[in-house]
Design goal:
elongated; single chain; 199 residues; mainly alpha; 9 helices
Length: 199
């Protein structure tokens, strides 16, 4: 038998379902950093993130043992989906009302394009890093669903199709959440005199 480190995620899943607990240890080692980073980015609390991380893997173990994982070659995406649902459940339990109202009149100001957000040159790196720091700060004020789509699109480079699949919503919903996130961030930037223009 090949060493566990040489096996694909799918092969490890099959081994674990057959009773090889070391196979799951290897899966955990491969995915834990990415999953924890995803969770803590959304909840902004290390203690809560640790709890949700453990809950995510307990759910994964249960689903694997119940045969609820289909071999698709996307184990990591499957884990992110479980983490996402675990976070949503936690927010529902907390009954968090941390949101920024968006009125119809403000919809016309969402004009940030990928080009504006991503183009950089060596001379402008310092200024652009400050803009990115300001963007992260503004993201803290967004509702969880809007913060999540911004994180996945601009910091994890997921397409809107992938975001929709991972979060269990339509592409239009993902696009709508991004639109409102940009609207809200623009408004907050104006209120705090923060310039979001890349050099």
């Amino acid at each position: 038998m090949k060493k566990l480190t040489r096996l694909t995620d799918e092969e490890l899943v099959l081994l674990y379902v057959q009773g090889n607990n070391r196979a799951f240890d290897e899966l955990l080692a491969r995915t834990q950093t990415g999953i924890f980073s995803y969770i803590i980015f959304i909840v902004h609390n290390e203690e809560v993130a640790n709890d949700l991380f453990q809950e995510t893997f307990l759910k994964a173990i249960t689903k694997l043992q119940e045969g609820k994982y289909s071999i698709t070659g996307k184990f990591n995406a499957w884990m992110i989906r479980i983490a996402h649902n675990t976070i949503i459940d936690w927010y529902r339990r907390q009954r968090t009302q941390n949101f920024v109202d968006t009125s119809v009149e403000d919809m016309t100001i969402a004009q940030m394009s990928d080009t504006e957000l991503m183009e950089t040159s060596c001379e402008d790196l310092l200024a652009n890093n400050q803009v990115l720091a300001d963007v992260r700060s503004l993201m803290d004020s967004l509702p969880e669903t809007q913060r999540e789509v911004v994180q996945m699109r601009f910091y994890q480079n997921y397409s809107f199709k992938e975001i929709a699949e991972l979060t269990g919503v339509s592409i239009n919903t993902s696009l709508g959440r991004m639109r409102y996130a940009l609207i809200n961030m623009r408004r907050l930037a104006r209120e705090h005199n923060i310039q979001l223009q890349f050099a």
